[in-house]
Each structure stands twice: as structure tokens, then as C-alpha cells.
Amino acid sequence: MSEIDLDSLKTRAFESKLDPLGKLTHAIAALGTIWTFGLMLLIVADVVGRSFLSRPITGVAEIAAHSIVAIVFLQLASTVHAKRMTRADFLIERFRASMPALARVLEVIFATVGAFICLLIAYACWKPLVGAYLAGEYFGVRGVFTIATWPFRALIVAGSALAGIVFCVQSVQFLTRRSGEGV
Amino acid sequence: MEPLTIGFLLIGAMVALIALGMHIGIVLFGLGGAGVLLIRDNVNLALSMTAINAYSGIQDYLFATIPLFVLMGLLVSISDVGKDTFDVAQTLLRRVRGGLGMATVAANAVFAAVTGVSIASAAVFTKVAVPEMLRHGYTLRFATGTVAGSSILGMLIPPSLLMIIYGVLAEVSIGKMFVAGVIPGIIIALGFAALIFFYATVYPEKVMVDPRLDVAARAGDHVMGTAEMLQKSVPIAALVVLVLAGLYTGFFTPTEAGGVGAFGALVIAVIRRRLDGSRLWRLLTETGHVSVAILFLLIAAGFYSRMLSLAGIPQAIGETVSTFGFGAYGFLFGYVVILLLMGMLLDSSSIMLIMVPIAAPIAQSFGFDLIHFGIITIIAVEAGLLTPPFGISVFTVKATLEDRSARIEEIFAGSMPFVVVMLIALLLIVVFPALSTILV
After folding, report:
1. What percentage of chain B reaches a pLDDT higher than 90?
2. Do B137 and B410 touch, CB atoms closer than 8 A?
3. Rounded to a whole number, what is the distance in Å from the CA of A146 to chain B's nearest CA?
4. pTM, rounded to two decimals
């Protein structure tokens, strides 16, 4: 469920329990976390500058829009790793209790499809990345501020590829784990 | 195969896969791609549409509202702002019959104006209001039902995450959605208060275990003076004014309101010393997980909705509905019933992402105002959060409750009257569109 988990705010030092892949995704997600915080400060600075100092910051809207791309793909793998991708778990929870083998088969299939889709996104976005880099594609206003788009496109490729790898690992984990162990 | 047949087969596959528990974003993305591939028989087109959705699909200034409002909601949830609001409402309503129940509704309505998520409200007020009501001799069923019921105000009174999602999907202004939600939100809050008064007057035995407990508890209650009440209400009042007034006057865009609101909530949390470095970090990480899950769903839903229109699904359903002579209100009735049924199984944002791309074009062709239609959608989806077997608000109350003896059925039963009030309000808003559109 894509709902808030307030209990996660209480758990202490949850990073220490993570496997290497978890640590990697967590470190990358941290960049996205800092970015979100920075975005908030940028917007406040723009509002203050605009209202009280009559000095707005140029391009906040464009920067905010592109920031969302970066934030999502920096944190996608970590969200997959934390098993926080939205799903309806009412049926599979019941299978887990009554038919654990079926639940496991489903989990393996779902993680494999997840890996396939994420890697497909990475693959589909590769060509536009190369194109944008070679063409020097940018956003902003020429002469005022311009920012190259290829780093954002690169984040999409890298972020979805990493999410695909996390799904792959989860699929193998579901396959090899004996039933009865926690998920 | 006809594009239309493909489209309907894919919708069937979607329902089955989501029900089995596949990640909803992955389902929508996969079926979007598969649909384009089958309809156009063109691999490159499917790939390039994937790439376009991943980049341009979320590269939108409005999407920045999502992490910002989630952050703001989490910050106010940990700053005891909800408890203060409840305390003030409790003092103000202490002489009214069923006053504590109404205080819960009132505090929820105010808290809703600074948070965009129902679950946050349900968790906060389960901790704050339920023990207080039990101490005053209210029944557990009434206390938990009231908290679960009034928590849905979080999504109805702006700012609301669901309104942002609807605005994006139906391509209507989020600022206008926020404004449109005010009167329906107030109607439902007043309806809840009236419901509580009705119960407390006509069936006092359902509300109170023993009225003498209330009298005894009241004698020991701390009655706040005006100064203390003011002091406790200033932070939340400042936030409400900052965010809502900024939005309504058009001084802030929704994204700016989110940024300024989150910053204001941060200042309150810091002043109250509710935040150290590691807690702030966990809170930001949680913000990331929640918003990425939603944003990824939005990208996927964008792709899926493009595939649906490529297949001509909304048009086909619209024509079918008219040929059978159901008309606009017949369609609306069927739609609301489907939303309520889905609310029994899925969470609210997923329902919106699956249904709005199909339904909004149909609604428009029937001549509904899309803002009016959005408010109807949100109320119906939120009513689903309270209905068994999987009403999430109810489960949050259950999970947050200290008293483990409370049975989930009991909380569902307690929140049922609130669902009835919501459905009555829904009917009113359908019949009188002006209730949602007059301020816009």
C-alpha cells in the first residue's frame, strides 16, 4: 500500500541490518532525500525572495519539474528494496497462510516481471539518453540559465536498472528461501 | 484482434494481476507497453512511448507537490500539533452532549487542513482521542469508529494527496480542486457532528458505557484558560492560514504551498524539539518511499491511460452506457458503486489511478464538470477506506490502538454510521453541483 508507515519513524538504526545491495540502494536514495529537502528550501527561498526582496529565483518551476525525475529514479531501487511498491496484498496474504507454495510461486513471478519491466525502462531510455547527450539537449532559457538534460536521463537509466537488479535478487531470494521463513 | 477487444482483455488482465498481488505500477506499465505493442504492432513505438513516459511523464512542476505535502504531513504528525488541536476542541466542546466525539471531528477537520493523508490523521487521533474518550466512559466501538470515520476528512479538506492525483490524471487545476473541496469537507464534518449528537441524544447507551464515568472524569479535567488555548492553537492556525490563504488568494501555486507548508511544519517541529538529526533523516526517507511509490504509479498510470485511449476504451464504454439508455446519472451510479467495491480491496491512490483515466473522459462526454466529478470520486473512494474487509483507515486505527482486545469488526461497525453520512453527503453533492463548484 502506498500509505504512510508512521512506525518506520521509530525504528532505530535500520540501516545496519541491510545487505550490500540494500546499503547501495540506500546510499543512492539518500541523494534523493537530500534533493527533496533542497527542493523545499529552494521553493521557500524563491517565495521569500519574490515577496519581500522582489528578487525571484529564475527557473524554479523548471528545476522543480526536473528534480522530480531525479528524486523518483534515485529512490526507486530503495523503495523496491524496502518492499514499499504499492500492491494489493489481501489475496497473497491469505495464500501465504493457507498455500505457502502458491504464494511463493506468485512472488517469484511478480519479482521477475518487475525486474523485466524495470530493465525494459532502462533499455528504452538508453537511446534518448545518447541522443540528448550528443545533441546537447538542455532545458531553461538560453542566455538566462540552461541545464543539460542528459544527467537526468542518465538517472532514469541507472535508477531503473538498479531497481531491476533489486527485483532480480528478490526473485532469487523467493526461489531459494525455504517456505515458512519470513518474507 | 480489434483494438477494443485488446483493450478490454488487458483491463481484465489488469484486474486479475492486481488482485493476485502484483505491484500495481508494474502491472500498469507492463500492460501499457503490451497494449501499444498489440494495437500498433510496433516495438519501437512501444519503447519510445515507454521512454517518453519515464521522462516527460513526471517532469511536471505539479508533481513536486507530492513529496512536499507528504513531508509536511509527516512533520505535523510528530509535532503534537494534532494533540493540541484536540485539547483545545475538547475544552471548547466540554458542555456539549457527545462533546468528545465532536472534538475529534473538529480536530480532524482542522488537522486535515495541514495534512493531505487520511492515514496520518487516523494514527495521530487513535493515540490522542481514543484513550481520552475511554477515560470519559465512551464505548470502545464509538470511540474507535469516530476516529476512523473522521480521519477521512484528511483527504476531503484540502490540501489533499488524492486531489493532486485526480488533478494530474483528469488534467484539471489542482488549485481549483483544493478550493472545490472546502464546502463538501465542511458539510461532511458538520454531518459527522450531527450524527454524534443524534446518537448521544437518542441512543446514549451506544455512546456511553456509564455516564457517571463522564461526570467523574470531567471533574478532574484540566480546563484551559483562553491564554493557554491561544498558545496551543497558534502554530496550527498559522500553518492553516499560510497554506490555505496562500492557495486561495493565488499567492502560492500548489507546489509553493507545499514547500512553504513543509518548511513551516519543520520550524514548528524544531521549536518543539520533536526533531533530532536521525529522526529528521528517517522522516525524509519515509517521505521518499511514500512519494516514490505514488509517483511511480502516476508514471505507469499515464502510460496505461494513453494505451486505453489508443484502444478507444473510454469512448466505447461511453457509447455502451448511452445505448443501454442509462444516461449520465446511470453512469455515475455505476461508477460510484465500482469505486466503493474497489475501496474494499485497494488503497485510495491506486483506485484513482486505475479508474480516473477510464472514467474522466466518459464523464466529460456526459457533460459533467470535471471538478464536480473529482469531488464525487474522492468522497466515494474515501468511503471505501471505511468499509470491510480492507478499509485501511480502520486497520490503521486497530494497529495504532494500545488496547489489543479491540476487535476489527467492532471498529468497522463503529465507523459504519459515518459511511452512511458520507453517502448522504455524496448524494447531496451529486444533486447540487454548486456545492463543489461555487467557490471555484
Report:
1. 8
2. no
3. 16
4. 0.84
pLDDT class for B116, splitting at 50, 70, 90? low
Q: Residues 6 or more apart from B12 whose CB is under 8 A from it?
A: none
Per-residue model confidence (pLDDT) at position A1: 37
| Facing A72 at nearest CB: one of B20, B29, B295 | B295
Q: Is the pLDDT of residue B387 over 70?
A: yes
* Total count of residues recorded for chain A: 183
Q: Write out pLDDT tens, residues B217-247.
A: 776 677 777 888 888 888 888 888 888 888 8
Instruction: Report the pLDDT value the prediction gives residue A181, as an integer from 0 to 100.
Output: 46
All residues of chain A having their beta carbon less than 8 Å from the beta carbon of residue B21 are 87-92, 106, 110
Per DSSP, the three-state class of A16 is helix
Q: Report the pLDDT averaged over residues B401-409.
A: 75
Cell matching residue B208: 456511553
For residues A51 and B118, the model is more confident at A51
Task: Indicate yes or no: CB of A3 within 8 angstroms of CB of B58.
Answer: no
What gap in Å lies between CA B385 and CA B397, rounded to an integer?
Answer: 12
- B389-424 residues labelled b (16+ CB within 10 A) or e (exposed): ebbbbbbbbbebbeeeebebebbbebbebbbebbee
Residue B288 in contact with partner chain A when CB distance is under 8 A: yes
Residue-wise burial string across B129-154, b where 16 or more C-beta atoms lie within 10 A, e elsewhere: bbebbbbbbbbbbbbbbbbbbbbbbb
Q: What is the DSSP letter of A17?
A: G
Phi, psi of B138 (to 5 degrees): -75, 155
Element (H, E) at A140: strand A138-141
